[in-house]
Design brief:
The complex is a heterodimer of chains A (about 375) and B (about 350).
Chain A lengths: L3 H19 L1 H4 L8 H24 L7 H17 L4 H23 L4 H20 L3 H4 L5 E2 L7 H5 L12 E2 L2 E2 L2 H24 L1 H11 L1 H6 L5 H25 L2 E2 L6 H14 L6 H18 L2 H7 L5 H11 L7 H15 L3 H13 L19
Antiparallel strand pairs in A: 1-4, 2-3
Helix pairs in contact in A: 1-9, 3-9, 3-10, 3-12, 3-13, 3-14, 4-5, 4-12, 5-6, 5-12, 9-10, 9-12, 13-14, 13-18
Chain B lengths: L1 H31 L6 H19 L2 E10 L5 E7 H6 L1 H8 L1 H23 L9 H23 L15 E3 H4 L8 E3 H23 L1 H11 L1 H6 L4 H23 L9 H16 L4 H18 L2 H6 L3 H16 L14
Antiparallel strand pairs in B: 1-2, 3-4
Helix pairs in contact in B: 1-8, 1-11, 1-12, 1-13, 2-5, 2-6, 2-11, 2-12, 5-11, 8-9, 8-11, 9-11, 12-13, 12-15, 13-15
The chains are: A mainly alpha (about 375), B mainly alpha (about 350).
Chain lengths: ~375, ~350
C-alpha cells in the first residue's frame, strides 16, 4: 500500500481517466457517440457497474438483484424532486442514503448464505421488490406508468427559498444550470470521476484486501478467527449506494422512474457489463458499461435498409441472405447480440476485455511484463 | 370448506408446472452439478413446440366460396387445413387435439435440444465455478428467448385446449360436496394429472431401471462409478436430455392455461429456482413437494379474503417463504445433509 510506485501509477491512472471522461464529447465524437444523452449513460452505468464490481469483483458474491437498488435510488430522487427541491445534490444524497439502507436490509438477509444460494436470494428479493413496485406500492411508485413530476408538486424547500417555476414542468437544476444536455453530462462526469477515485481507494485499502481474501478462500478466513460477514455486508452496502447514486443520476437527467428498472434482466445487464469488462479490475466494469451502452445505442438503430447498404458489395443473393441473418441481431434483436456476447465472453474470456487487452499487451511486449497493476485480471498490489 | 378445497385445486396446476421444472433443475444439478439458468427457456421452447405443431396442422388451403358473400360483398374465404383434406375426420380431430398431439413431437425435439445443449455447451462448464455456469446459461436463455421472439413475435399466442376438455368439471359432486360448489376447468385437472404422470414416470425410471440405478449411483459418487468402467458422462448427457423433455412437456401442456410468449420461461424460472431451494438442492422428492406446496400457498394468498388483510401478499408470498426457509433451514425442506449447504 505504501508503495510509492503504485501510488504514482494510480495517480496517472486517475488523471488519465478524468481526462478521458472530461474530454469525452471530443474523443467519442468521431465514433458517433459524442452527444450528451449517450455520454451520460456511459457515466451512469459506469458508476452502476463499478459499484457492482466492488461486490462481485472483490468478494466473488454474485448478486442477481442489483437493479433493485438502482430502482429504489430513482424513486427516492424523483420523490425528493416532488416534495423538497429540484436541486440534484439533495436528490442524490437521498438516493444514495435510501439505496444504502435498502442494501443493508437485503444484504443482511442474503449474506447469511453464499454461492448459488446468495444469487437466488438476491434474485428473489429483487423480484419481490419489482412485483411490489408494480402492484401494492402503486401509490408510491405509480405502477406501470412510472413516477413523474407534476407542476402541482409541493417542492417545499424550493418554495421556502422562493423559487417559482411558473407554469412549466421544472427540470432538475444546479443553482440555475439545467441538468440537461452538456451541463447534465458534466455533472454526471464529475460524479463518475469521484466514484472512480473512491473505488480505487477501496481497491487499494486493507479493506479491499480483506474482500479479496473472502473471494479466494472464505473458509480459511473463518479458521483464522475472523468474521467475514461485516466486511461482505459493508461491500454490499457500498455497492448498493453506488447503484442508488446511479439510479438518482438517471432521475436527475430525466426525472422519471419506472419499475422496469428493477427487473431482473436489468440486474443481468450490470452483471454482463462487469463480466464483459473484467470483474475485479478497476477499469473493466467502466469499459464494459461503455461498450454495452454504445453498441446498444448503435445496434438498435440499425434497420434493414442500412444493412442492405452495408452488404451492397456482395452479389444480390448473398446480400439478401446476409441481411436476413444479420437483421436478427440488430434493431429489435439487439438483445440477441447481447446474449450471444455474454456467452462468448464467459466461454472464451472469463477475465473480460481487460484480460484480452492484457494478453495482447504481453504478447507484444514480452519483456515489459505486466507493469500496469490495474490491467492485471486479478490485481495483487505489492505490500 | 369448499372454498379451501377450490384453492387447493387452484394451486395444483401451477404447482404441477413448478414441480416439473424444478424436478428437471434438480436432476441436472444433482447429476451434473450445473446450475441451469436456461431451464426456463426449455419450458418456453416446449410451449412453442405446441405453437409450431398447431401452426403446421392448420396450414390451410384457401378457397373462395362464391355462393356465400361477406358483409362487403366479396366471396367468403374458406380455409380447410390440408390435414383435414387428407385425413378427413381424423384430421379434424388432430387439429382439435393439437396440444396433446404436440407431445409426440415435443419429446424427440426436446431430447435433441437437451442433448445438443449438454454436448455443445454445458459439458465445458462442469469444472468451472458456479458463477460462470449461471452466467453462461443465463446468456443462453437470452439467446433462445430472442430467437423465439424473432420467429414468433412478441405477443402471446393463444392455444386452445381440445373441445372435449374445454368445459368445467363439477369436482365437488365427485367427493360428496354439494353439486356445483367446486367447479373447475377440466384442462387444469388434466394438467395436474399429467404432471403427476410425468413425475411418476421420472421416478420410476430412476428407481426401477438399470440405467436409473447407474444414474443414482453417479449422483452419489461420480468418480467411483467411473472407476467401475461405466461411461457416466454419456448417461448424464441423456439425463440432461430427459430433464429437458420434462421441462418441455410441462411447457406443451401449459399452453392452454397460459398463452405462450417468449418471456414465459424467465417468469417461471425464477419461481422454479425458489422451489428448488425450498425443496432442498439436490433432492428430487423435495422439488416435487415444494412445487405443489408453493403452488397451493400462492393460490391461497391470492384469495380476496387474504388480500384484504395483507394487500399484495400474493405477489411476494413465494419469495418470503423462500427467504424464511433459507434462513431457518439452510438445507431446504428435504435436502440431503452435506449437499450444497454453504
Amino acid at each position: 500500500m505504501g508503495n510509492t510506485d503504485t501510488k504514482r501509477k494510480d495517480l496517472i491512472l486517475l488523471a488519465g481517466f478524468s481526462a478521458v471522461v472530461l474530454l469525452a464529447p471530443f474523443i467519442f465524437g468521431p465514433v458517433g457517440a459524442g452527444y450528451p444523452d449517450l455520454l451520460q449513460k456511459f457515466a451512469i452505468f459506469g458508476i452502476f457497474a463499478m459499484g457492482f464490481n466492488i461486490l462481485f469483483g472483490l468478494t466473488g458474491y454474485l448478486s442477481f438483484g442489483h437493479a433493485a437498488f438502482l430502482g429504489v435510488g430513482s424513486y427516492a430522487a424523483v420523490w425528493t424532486f416532488k416534495l423538497l427541491t429540484m436541486n440534484p445534490f439533495v436528490a442524490l444524497s437521498l438516493a444514495v442514503l435510501i439505496g444504502g439502507l435498502f442494501a443493508l436490509a437485503i444484504g443482511f438477509v442474503c449474506l447469511r448464505r453464499s454461492g448459488i444460494y446468495f444469487s437466488i436470494l438476491t434474485l428473489a428479493l429483487a423480484q419481490m421488490s419489482y412485483n411490489l413496485a408494480y402492484s401494492v406500492l402503486t401509490p408510491i411508485t405509480n405502477g406501470e406508468t412510472g413516477l413523474q413530476l407534476a407542476q402541482s408538486d409541493p417542492r417545499s424547500l424550493d418554495a421556502m427559498f422562493g423559487i417559482d417555476y411558473g407554469a412549466v414542468l421544472p427540470s432538475s437544476h444546479l443553482f440555475g444550470i439545467d441538468m440537461t444536455g452538456y451541463p447534465g453530462f458534466y455533472f454526471c462526469a464529475v460524479m463518475f470521476i469521484a466514484c472512480f477515485y473512491l473505488s480505487m481507494r477501496i481497491f487499494r485499502s486493507p479493506f479491499g484486501m480483506m474482500l479479496r481474501a473472502v473471494k479466494s478462500n472464505q473458509n480459511r478466513m473463518n479458521y483464522t478467527g475472523l468474521n467475514s460477514r461485516p466486511y461482505t455486508l459493508t461491500a454490499f452496502v457500498i455497492s448498493g449506494m453506488y447503484a442508488g447514486l446511479a439510479g438518482g443520476l438517471l432521475a436527475v437527467t430525466d426525472p422519471l422512474a419506472g419499475a422496469e428498472r428493477m427487473q431482473w434482466t436489468a440486474s443481468g445487464e450490470v452483471v454482463l457489463m462487469t463480466i464483459l469488462g473484467g470483474a475485479g479490475t478497476l477499469l473493466g466494469p467502466v469499459i464494459g458499461a461503455g461498450v454495452i451502452k454504445y453498441f446498444e445505442n448503435i445496434f438498435s438503430a440499425f434497420n434493414e435498409g442500412f444493412l442492405l447498404d452495408v452488404f451492397d458489395f456482395l452479389p444480390e443473393v448473398i446480400q439478401h441472405a446476409a441481411v436476413s441473418v444479420s437483421s436478427l441481431f440488430v434493431g429489435e434483436g439487439w438483445h440477441l447480440t447481447l446474449g450471444a456476447l455474454f456467452m462468448v465472453i464467459v466461454i472464451f474470456l472469463p477475465g473480460g476485455l481487460m484480460e484480452g487487452i492484457n494478453r495482447l499487451y504481453r504478447k507484444f511486449r514480452p519483456k515489459g511484463g505486466s507493469s500496469d497493476p490495474d490491467a492485471a485480471p486479478a490485481p495483487a498490489p505489492a505490500e | 370448506m369448499d372454498q379451501i378445497f377450490l384453492q387447493v385445486l387452484n394451486g395444483l396446476d401451477k404447482g404441477g408446472a413448478y414441480a416439473l421444472i424444478a424436478l428437471g433443475l434438480t436432476i441436472i444439478f444433482g447429476t451434473l452439478g450445473v446450475v441451469n439458468f436456461a431451464h426456463g427457456a426449455l419450458f418456453m421452447l416446449g410451449a412453442f413446440c405446441a405453437v409450431t405443431v398447431k401452426a403446421l396442422l392448420e396450414t390451410s388451403k384457401v378457397t373462395t366460396d362464391p355462393t356465400q358473400l361477406t358483409a362487403w360483398g366479396t366471396p367468403v374465404e374458406v380455409r380447410t387445413p390440408y390435414i383435414e383434406a387428407w385425413l378427413g375426420d381424423f384430421g379434424t380431430l388432430l387439429v382439435d387435439f393439437s396440444v396433446p398431439a404436440s407431445i409426440i413431437i415435443a419429446i424427440p425435439v426436446m431430447l435433441l435440444i437437451g442433448v445438443a445443449m449438454e454436448r455443445g455447451l454445458i459439458r465445458f462448464f462442469y469444472k468451472r465455478p458456479h458463477a460462470e455456469q449461471i452466467l453462461v446459461t443465463f446468456g443462453l436463455a437470452i439467446v433462445l428467448q430472442e430467437i423465439v421472439k424473432s420467429q414468433f413475435g412478441a405477443n402471446p399466442i393463444p392455444q386452445p385446449a381440445p373441445d372435449a376438455a374445454k368445459g368445467m368439471v363439477d369436482f365437488g359432486a365427485f367427493i360428496g360436496f354439494q353439486a356445483g360448489s367446486v367447479v373447475y376447468p377440466a384442462w387444469r385437472l388434466i394438467y395436474f394429472l399429467f404432471s403427476l404422470m410425468v413425475i411418476g414416470a421420472v421416478f420410476a425410471f430412476l428407481q426401477f431401471t438399470t440405467f436409473g440405478m447407474v444414474v443414482r449411483a453417479g449422483m452419489a459418487d461420480r468418480e467411483t462409478v467411473g472407476l467401475l468402467g461405466i461411461d457416466i458422462d454419456r448417461r448424464f448427457t441423456i439425463v440432461f436430455g430427459i430433464a429437458a423433455v420434462v421441462a418441455g412437456l410441462a411447457g406443451v401442456m401449459y399452453t392452454p392455461i397460459l398463452s405462450p410468449d417468449y418471456h414465459m420461461g424467465m417468469d417461471f424460472l425464477v419461481l422454479s429456482f425458489v422451489v428448488v431451494v425450498v425443496g432442498g438442492m439436490g433432492s428430487l422428492p423435495g422439488a416435487v413437494v415444494a412445487g405443489f406446496l408453493l403452488g397451493i400457498v400462492q393460490s391461497f394468498a391470492s384469495m380476496n379474503e387474504v388480500k384484504a388483510i395483507l394487500p399484495g401478499i400474493d405477489q411476494i408470498i413465494i419469495y418470503l417463504i423462500a427467504v424464511v426457509i433459507l434462513l431457518a433451514r439452510p438445507r431446504g425442506l428435504m435436502g440431503r445433509k452435506g449437499v450444497m449447504e454453504a
